[in-house]
Amino acid sequence: MPQSSSLTPTMVALAAPAAAAVILTALRPRLRPDVRGSRRLLLVVGLTIAAQVLHFVEELRTELYVAFPTTFGFPAAQLSVFVWANTTALVVWAAALIAVRQGIVLALLPLWFLGFCALLNLVLHPYLALTTGGYYPGVVTAPLVGVLGIMTIRELARVTANDRENPGVTDHRASVARSRLPDNDRSSR
Q1: Could you tell me which residues come within 8 angstroms of residue 172 by beta carbon, excluding any fewer than 6 positions away?
Q2: CA–CA distance, 8 with 145 (Å, rounded to integer)
Q3: Is residue 2 part of a domain?
Q4: Quick one: which of 36, 30, 82, 38 has its CA closest to 57?
Q5: How far apart are CA 189 and CA 112, in angstroms?
Q6: What is the mean pLDDT of residues 14-35?
Q7: Are 75 and 4 in contact (CB under 8 A)?
Q8: Residue 115, number of CB atoms within 10 A of its CB
Q9: Host domain of residue 68
Q10: Percent of the chain with pLDDT over 90
Q11: Would you call 73 helix, strand, or coil by DSSP?
Q12: What is the number of domains present in the chain?
């Protein structure tokens, strides 16, 4: 019989935010022209990342890496894996925020993931506290992270567009393709 993995509950929990991030990145592939100078995007997503740091510290100090898997009957996760995964996510989210402000559409994927993970925290940590009958690691900072996650999702929706919305919005896929055309072909467009 194969040994069960301590990461199974985490992978199951993160599947929905990952799927939502992929879907929204595909459905909203264009950035509004003002994204480069958007202080609101920088503030909202930056605060969400900062709140996620606080949340990670709470989870680390209260040993979520032990509590979460064992709640579902799995062995505790290794501390090093927990620290590595959270630190990597924080770095990727910060880099993605910088990249989106530079107009890199693919960088939306980790930011959508951040927003939906934060929203998941808003629901999952209090639920686990209620079902276990007391404090659950991460429950104190989960509401802050969750509210900022909602704000992040709304802000990403504001700075992106789908193919049917606002014809004036820059479609970076098309602009890259046009930039590769010879000058005489561009003038005919």
Answers
A1: 29, 30, 31, 103, 105
A2: 23
A3: no
A4: 82
A5: 33
A6: 91
A7: yes
A8: 28
A9: 15-187
A10: 71
A11: coil
A12: 1
Around Cβ 152, how many Cβ atoms within 10 Å? Answer: 29
- Give the model's pLDDT for residue 163: 66
Backbone angles phi, psi at 63, to 5 degrees: 60, 50
Tell whether 6 is covered by a domain. no
Q: Quick one: CA dihedral 131, 53, 94, 157, positive or negative?
A: positive
Residue with tokens 């509590």: 67
Nearest-Å Rg of the Cα atoms of the chain is 20
The pair of structure tokens assigned to 97 is 């925020």
Average pLDDT over residues 20-34: 91
Cα-based distances in Å from 28 to 40, 94, 135: 19, 21, 38
Distance (Å, whole) CA 139 – CA 122? 8
* H or E segment to which residue 31 belongs: strand 30-31
129 part of a folded domain: yes
**pTM for this predicted structure:** 0.83
Establish if 7 belongs to a structural domain: no
